[in-house]
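Morning run. Coffee first, then this:
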Amino acid sequence: MAEPEFSASGVRIGRGLRSLTRAGQVRISDGRLELLTSYGSEIDSAPVQTVRASRPWFASEDRALADLNGTRYLLTLGDHDPAPGQPGPPAAERFIEAVRHAAGRDH
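And here it is:
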C-alpha cells in the first residue's frame, strides 16, 4: 500500500449541523479521499476526481468543505481552536491543495 498523499487525524467531521466525529481521520491515498471515524470506520469515501474541496466563507481558517457523493461535510482540521482573531493552523489549505493535486487540478 502506497504512502498517503495527505493524512490528518483529530479532525472534527460534520454534516449540516450534526457532528459525526470529533477525532476523525481524513486520508487521500491511491486516488481516493476517505473520511474515517476515530476507530477507523469509514464515514464516506470517493474517487478524488469527483470530490470538491473548498474554504467556507463563513468559518475560520482551519475549516474546509468537502463534497463527496452529493454530501457536504464540514471538516475542522487542526489541533486546537484558534484564539479570537487569530488564524488557525494551515491544515485546511493543505487539504484543499492535496485534493486538487491528487485530482490533477493543480491550476
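The chain has one helix and seven strands. Good start to the day.
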